[in-house]
Amino acid sequence: MEGHQEPNYPPPLTPSSLISLPFLLPPQNPLFTPSSASTAPSSSSQLISPPLLEPQQHQVLPDIDWVSLLSGSPAAGFDGQEINNYKPLVENNNVGASAENINEADREGKGANSKRKGGGRMRKPASRPRFAFQTRSADDILDDGYRWRKYGQKAVKNNLYPRSYYRCTHHTCNVKKQVQRLSKDTSIVVTTYEGTHNHPCEKLMETLTPLLKQMQFLSRF
DNA sequence: CGATTTTGACCAGCGC
DNA sequence: GCGCTGGTCAAAATCG
């Protein structure tokens, strides 16, 4: 049923283009806060590096295309490859996963596809890109520009905090994400995205539309 | 009143 | 086969 290729939204942006997108910058969106920004207030969110790296290596890659990354686009470079020492916690069926909490969440994917009341495992084995990262934040929910609806919450083993399950509210979009706070370090939130958005980011379009109109206007001179 | 969250039940995969 | 665990469903509750 999932043979056809959906278009990936939003289109890849360069880091410089992010400057024009205030909602993608802190504190609204902690994803784009470099870990080196130690001057940030403790109350604001901060993207931290995955536990795959040595402590000294903890840094955020400045050239990462974060927007496409969140949309699951291969352009982000997380199609199984490592970029500049930065590794996702989870990528495409557990390749490179190391955080124990994510490992447990990622054990499945054996192809069960039945659909009944009460769920069961209905994940595709390999077709859904997955990506996990950690943020240091007081809030569990990141403002990534998409709208999410919570469809479940579950207490997980070896963790004091429950894992929350969200689905993209767009009718045709089947992207999911899991959010969990680490019991080891309660200030850290692990967010796992699964799937590819097949629609534009609402906030992105909201911000881009006036910009594009202005550019069109100026280009006439 | 529609959208979203909460929450308990259900189900499948895995290890033993 | 059985129990444990994680993921999902869906009814009820809550919110805006």
Structural class: alpha+beta
* Helix and strand sequence: HEHHEEEEEH
Walk across the major sheet and give the strand order: 1-2-6-5-4-3
Q: Number of helical runs? A: 4
Largest sheet: 6 strands, antiparallel
Mean pLDDT: 58
Helix content: 10-25%
**Regions with pLDDT < 50 over 5+ consecutive residues?**
1-7, 10-43, 49-88, 90-116, 121-126
Oligomer: single chain
- The total strand number stands at 6
Work out the strand percent: 15-25%
Radius of gyration: 18 Å
Shape: elongated
**Gap between N and C termini:** 49 Å
Domain WRKY: 137-202
Subcellular location: Nucleus
Protein name: Probable WRKY transcription factor 56
InterPro entries: WRKY_dom (IPR003657), WRKY_dom_sf (IPR036576), WRKY_plant (IPR044810)
Topology:
Layout: H1 15-18, E1 46-48, H2 66-71, H3 100-105, E2 130-136, E3 148-155, E4 162-168, E5 176-181, E6 188-194, H4 202-218
Antiparallel strand pairs: 1-2, 2-6, 3-4, 4-5, 5-6
The protein binds a DNA duplex (16 and 16 nucleotides) through residues 104-105, 107-108, 110, 112, 114-123, 149-154, 156-157, 163, 165, 169, 178.
Write a structural description.
This protein has a 6-stranded antiparallel sheet with strand order 1-2-6-5-4-3, with no helix packed on it. The protein is α+β, with helices and mostly antiparallel strands. The model is unreliable at 1-7, 10-43, 49-88, 90-116 and 121-126 (pLDDT under 50). Helix content is 15%, strand content 17%. It starts with 14 loop residues before the first helix and ends with a helix. It contains 4 helices and 6 strands; from the N terminus they run αβααβββββα.
